[in-house]
Structure of EAL domain-containing protein:
Amino acid sequence: AKERGRNGVRFFNQQMQAEVSARTELATGLRQAMAQQQFVLHFQPQIQGDTTVGAEVLLRWQHPDKGLVAPGLFIPVAESSGQILQIGRWVLQQACMQLAEWARHSDTASWYLAVNVSARQLHDVHFVDEVKKALRDNGAIAENLVLELTESQLLQDIDTVIHKMQQLTALGVRFSLDDFGTGYSSLSYLKRLPLSQLKIDRSFVRDILTDANDKAIIKTILALGQSLELAVIAEGVETEPQYQKLLQLGCQQFQGYLFGKPVALAEFAKAQLGSFTQ
Ligand code: C2E
Ligand code: CA
Ligand code: CA
Ligand code: CA
C-alpha cells in the first residue's frame, strides 16, 4: 500500500508538471503569436428582421502547425498569464479599424461590432482609456461599438465597473450582458448597470423545443428585457424551428449558425453584401 501511495504521489506530480509545462509552452506560444501577428478575427452576423445589424468579433489563433485554434483553448491561459490585456487591446484596435473602414461605405455605416471583454481587461485600471484610444486611433464611431461582458465579471468591484461603464456609455459605447441566465445576476443590480442588451445563453436556446424549463427561462429573460427596456438577443440559433419558437416568444435579435457561422473578414463581407469588397 505504501508502495502504491508513493507511486500515486509521483504520478500526481508528473501530471501536474505536465500541465504546468503545457501552460508555460502555451504562454510562450501566445507571446510569439502576438509578435508574429498570428491572431485573426472572425465575424458572426447578428440579425434583426431580415437584415444584418452587426457582428460579434471572435478571436482565432492561426497557428503555424496546429491550424486555426479556437479561443476556448488559449484564452483561459492568456487570462491567467495576463497576456489577455495585450491580446484584448489588439482585438479592440482591430475591431475599431474595421468599424472605421465600414463607416466609409454608406451601406455598412450602421453596422456595429460586438467585442468580448475579459474580466482581466474590465478590471484593469486602463480599460476606459484603452477603449477610448482604440476609437480615437482608428476614427471609429463609439455608437458602432458594443462590449460584451459576462455576469461573473460583474460580481467583483461592482461600483468601479459601473463607473467605467458609465464613462463609456456617455461616449456612445453600448454594453451587452453575455451568457445571460447562467450566472448569478440579481435583479436589483441588473437595474443599476448601464446595459443596452441581454444575450440569452445558447444552452437555453439549444433545448428550447424540448425543455420546458429552458423555454420558461427564455420567456423570463424576454420579459425582463422588456421591463428594463433592454434589447434581447438569442445566441446559438441553429435551426429554423428554434428560430420560429423564439420569434413567437417575442425575441427580435438573433445570432447562430442558422444565419451564419463565424468567418474571416473577406468571407463575412462577401456573404453579407455581395458588392462589398474589402
Ligand atoms: P461567446 O462569447 O459565448 O461566443 C459565442 C460562441 O458560440 C463562439 O465560440 C461561437 O463560434 C459559438 N457559436 C455561435 N453560433 C453558434 C451556434 O449556432 N451553435 C453553436 N454550437 N455555437 C455557436 P468561439 O468562437 O469558439 O468562442 C468561444 C468563447 O471564447 C467566446 O464565447 C468568448 O467567451 C471567448 N472569446 C472569443 N473571442 C474573444 C475575444 O476576442 N476576447 C475574449 N476575452 N474572449 C473571446
Ligand atoms: Ca460573446
Ligand atoms: Ca455561452
Ligand atoms: Ca455567449
In short: The chain is about 50% helix and 20% strand. The chain has a mean pLDDT of 92.
